[in-house]
Give the backbone structure.
Amino acid sequence: MTFRKFAFNNVVRNKRLYAAYFLSSMFTVMVFFTFGIFAFHPSLAGNEMNASVKTGMNISAGIIYVFSFFFILYSMSSFLNTRKREFGLLMIQGMSVRQLRRMVFLENMLIGFFATIGGILLGLVFSKFILLIAENVLVMEAPLNFYFPIHALLITFGSFTLLFFFISLFVSYILRSRKLIDLIKGNKKSKGEPKANIFLTILAALLIGSGYAVALNVEGVAVIAVMLPVIIVVIIGTYLFFTQLSVYFIRKLKKNENLFWRKTNMILFSDLSFRMKDNARTFFMVAIVSTVAFSAIGTLFGFQSFITANMNTNHPYTFSSYSPVDQEQHEVEFINDTLKKENIESIHDETLLRYYEINQNTVLITKQSEFNRFAKLLGEDTIDIQPGEVKVVEFKKSKFGHTEKLLEQTISLTSGETLIPEGVISSRALPTLASYYVVSDQDFERLPNPTREEYYHVWQVTKGEKNTLSASKKILEALPDYEFYSRDYMIHEVNKYYGLVLFVGLFIGIVFFVSAGSFLYFRLYADLDEDKQKFRSIAKIGLSEKELKTVLTKQTAILFFTPIVVALVHGAVALTALSHFFYYDITKVAVSVLGVFLLIQIVYFYIVRFFYTKQIKAVL
């Protein structure tokens, strides 16, 4: 048998351990290849939007590539640790350090080669489906038809072949260390039960608590100012939480005799206590990587929800337009004709907006009848203002109204009377985010000459909503200099450009989350041989199959859900801080994103638990 055949057989014999590494690497290659398909697609050329798409895809591919390097490097380190006894036996049989390094290099290159080929083939199989999703998410003007991506294929194959080559070199190089060889030769030794430092335990709670308190109590631009310090504090606190606070908590549970001696808890707590040092780093890494995935995707979806909601709030009418009083109204006639040709029925209304100089500020003042007419169009309550009264109207959910300032000012009439504003109304009837005054019709006629006037037209569509987008495009193309607004068209344009960010962020978040799941898989299977020996011995003194399944379920659940629960809490706090920054509630978005990730983790847990339990039961 040749040396290459020996390395190949090693991979085949360890297929259980290499399965997660191979599948995760293949998935990463597939994602990178998919981005390549988009970046080199013939339809993504020619205009500014498509250039932005290509740039975003290239940057994202770079992020995934860099992350892949560290992910694969970590995976290989895990494999080396789990194969210490195997390496030791090989060296006892006469294998030299040089041959050992060569074997590890060949094994990793073999897995890398097939993972790269598999990822490319998987990307080709699902490319049409993914292109169809991208076409809808990115709101593309031209369809993203399938094509054979030669450029993407060559770049993906070359990039990941190079990546696996350098990682294989690096991993084989570190095997030169005499200290590592000593570890490889020896059996796995107990590291002893870890002990918690009471000072660091308290510090962990204080760091996480203070980080949460600051993040949840700041608003507006202050969220950005405290973001970096909070992130640093919470990361340090999370590391101490797993290395100190969790150890302290487990030791306290062990001292509770009623709990410790109940059923199989002794096995569970003792195992947790001795493995916490090994698990702590994995828990920390998974919690941080998962938090990044949760927060990134939640932020992207939350920001999209915020933009869309603001568009709908700030533009309550389907169409609106402004024009100077000295401008002819043929534009309005053209808009009406276009809507008619597009089979759109709407209610059209107009008013003359008048702005007055009050204490060196230009303020809109309207009369009760005009305000009520537009309020009815939106289904809002009408108002009744008596002569001599003035109300301040602030735009609903607006932070830019200067309402308090308007309440302190007065309005002078031509009759010499002075009107004092009293009371505030919240409405979207007229199109100004700044607050304004509404007076009675009688008082409105006695106002001085305005400093500025403009016509305001609105169209509220009642039938034919599906044609508003095409009608908007025709109007904007025919009247490029006319101040015309279409709510649906603006949302469409925002989604067209923002869809790229959302699509890219979603893919990167999924890669991070899958990697976090792989880390947990590696950690679980690293102790498989030890668990087999342990449970074989315990089974001899009376551990039933049902009790074995209970212990394994609890152990696997703690491994899978402890870091994820921490990540979910971190993500929830981060998204709450984001909502304070925008002054917009994204609770539904946050619950949806975090809920989907939790559901995926639950499904993954049951799959891994099934196969892990099967492996343990096979040796009993």
